[in-house]
Amino acid sequence: MRIACNGATPWSVLLPVQVETEAEILVARQALVPGKVLDAEAMALSRRRIPGFADCCARDDSALIGRRVRRPIAADAPIPLDSLETAPLVRRGEIVTVVAGSPGFEVRASGVALADALEGDALRIRHTTSLRIIQARAYSRGVVRVD
Known about the structure:
- The protein is mostly beta strands.
- The protein has two domains: 17-86, Antifreeze-like/N-acetylneuraminic acid synthase C-terminal domain (Type Iii Antifreeze Protein Isoform Hplc 12, Alpha-Beta Complex), CATH 3.90.1210.10; 95-145, SH3 type barrels.
- Helix content is 0%, strand content 45%.
- The strands form four sheets. It has a five-stranded mixed β-barrel with strand order 7-8-9-10-11.
- The N and C termini lie far apart (56 Å).
């Protein structure tokens, strides 16, 4: 930070500043390892003073439930948003329901996912009966839709 005076003899001084924020943020109740899917039991709200601004850390547990930990988080440490990723709706090798149709009718079949996919992601599915590969989009947990 620079402090200055523009008087008869102008002067200025540079001072180091450290920004801290006190806010209610989510902390890990126990150590969280990569791959762990977050649930309400894994986190708790705590008032903390953190360096920088509070937007670096999670503040709403409902937005984090179901997300997966990418980097280790120590017990009682703030949960940084960049340490989490959205868990895929469909996992590679999982048996999924394939839905196709148009208004008024719907056809369902089963298949095996050939890749992980988040909601709306395109992925390939191997039909369990014909063994043909089809293209579909992840729709919900274990369900894909053919475009």
